[in-house]
Amino acid sequence: MNNVIINIKQKEILSEIFSALEFAAFKHRRQRRKGAGEIPYINHPIEVTHLILRTVEEPSKELIIAALLHDLLEDTDTTDEDIRSKFGGKVLNLVEEVTDDMKLPKRERKRLQILKVADLTAEAQYIKIADKACNIRDIISTRLYWSRKDKIDYIAWACQVVEKIKNVHGGLISAFRENLREAENRLDCRFDFTI
After folding, report:
1. What is the DSSP letter of 168?
2. Using one digit for the tens of pLDDT, what is the confidence trace for 137-153?
């Protein structure tokens, strides 16, 4: 049996990450993902974070925490100050970078994501790629009530967002492409994705 030895610094980092996970789980506690199965919403930020952990070499603690918290400002009553006071300014900045202005109409929010994604920091772009990759997998697997056209429209838009990213990360793009290929197979459709 191999014993995992965690030094004091690693333990502190893990404690901060688990605090973020606990905070996100509490804030998302009443939410469910759209689609079949009534999947707890917290599964989505966990999947996004897990994809980043599997693909990004030496991700910063702030990137991991921001990935766990990335939907809080959009989807819960969490404030900027809640995030800043618990997890610091860098985490808040990352979360704010990937947060849409929910006061705007959906079409405008989607248009702005395409326009603004190239100007995000590299770490915020990593969260965007991972988020879109996980959403594609979720859409083709659980959103049975979505029409084929709705699924195709979302995935085509996700491709447009990811194509504008300057700090392309090979592992994340590979995961995005893998989910895109699965969507193409299931939907019998080809998407124009050039990265």
Report:
1. -
2. 999 988 888 999 999 99
Is residue 2 assigned to a domain? no
Per the domain annotation, does 192 fall within a domain? Answer: no
Does residue 3 lie within any of the structural domains? Answer: no
Model confidence pTM above 0.90: yes
Number of domains in the chain: 1
CB neighbour list of residue 150: distance below 8 Å, 6 or more residues apart: none
Q: Which domain covers residue 45, as residue numbers?
A: 8-187
Instruction: Give per-residue pLDDT as tens, 54-113.
Output: 999 999 999 999 999 999 999 999 999 999 999 999 999 999 999 999 999 999 999 999
Q: Is 12 a catalytic residue?
A: no
Measure the CA–CA gap between 46 and 31, rounded to whole angstroms.
Answer: 14
In the set 75, 80, 100, 163, the catalytic residue is 75
User: Residue-wise over 23-60: b if at least 16 C-beta within 10 A, else e?
Assistant: bbbebbeeeebeeeeebebbbbbbbbbebbeebbeeee
- Active-site hit among 74, 80, 100, 163: 74
- Identify the CATH number of the domain in which residue 129 sits: 1.10.3210.10
d(CA 70, CA 94) in angstroms, rounded, equals 8
Residue 85 domain-assigned (yes or no)? yes
* Active-site residue, 74 included: yes
